[in-house]
Amino acid sequence: MLPKRIVLMYISEVSGHHNATLAIEKAIRILTPHAEISNINAFNYTNPVAEKVVNSVYMSIIKVAPKIWDYLYDNPKIVKKIEKAKQNINKANSPKLKKLFERLRPEVVVCTQAFPCGMVAGYKKTYQADLPLIAVLTDYVPHSYWIYDAVDCYITPSEDVSSRLIKKGVPAQKVKSLGIPFDPKFNTTLDKNSIFSKYKLSPGLPTILIMGGGQGLGPIKTIVKSLEKIDRDIQEIIVTGTNKKLYNSLRRKIKKYKKKIVVFGYAQNINELMSIADIVVSKPGGVTTSEVLSLAKPMIIVKPLPGQEANNTAYLTQKEAALEIEEPGKINLVIEDLLRNHEKLKHLSDCAKRISKPNASMDIARLLLESRNG
pTM for this one? Predict the structure, then answer.
């Protein structure tokens, strides 16, 4: 039997969408080492110049005027207004995709972001192509930009998301609630004492992991300053992602802080850091959230951005698997309360475990390998 040929598509190198495709690829290779997998930045492939411009504009909006993104995100009026333009863009990209698919001859295409999903749906319509297309949603609220008749299967983070997709008109038989894919290594049991020793941390102190996503966004400096007010010994692990300015700033000031602090830049050892954390303070990106839930870690979300983050936060807080705070300068009060009240910590942990889908990546990989010609 020939190896399975699978194309995985995402946008933006430093993103949860990319981490999701990498997680799926890793899971497939665990099951079928010789599978032919192509992991492609779809936006960069079809429009490399536009990708840089759009990413730059997006980051500027998020940082300077997040309310604009809130207005644009899944707004039915906006969705309707740009429908024709979206169709034209997808049609224009179809010849490029035709060349790509003729070369790679995929048996299935998987998209972890709505833009490439629309592109492949447009390609299928333009060329009447019989190519299985699977959409993997990486946030806890499904927006309308995902909806295409040409999608053969939707993989959702939860049963709640599946229900919402069905209400938006997606046939129920096309929807499977398998979870958000994340690196299978998070399911490996680690020796926590050796990790504490490795990073010169104390296993006897409460450990707070603070992250700002792949790009190190959010009020991390304010959070660190607030934690200085906690009237007990704690230790902090801070991950700044690709934000070198933040990393350098924290490293310069590290000796001035009373609390023990370890700073990482873009880290590949998040599974180790999460495993020893008592509390995770993080942006609520879909993949990060699924990692936190799989480890049943209490989570605090500080000032989520409008759009995906706000929706993910609403889902998590409704399920009582996370706490949201709007004032980062007061996070010390919330963490002090949690450290005093172990029942609250345990409740957050139990709720996280209840809604987690720790086998998401492997379950998705099995589905792909069982699809056509498997």
Answer: 0.90
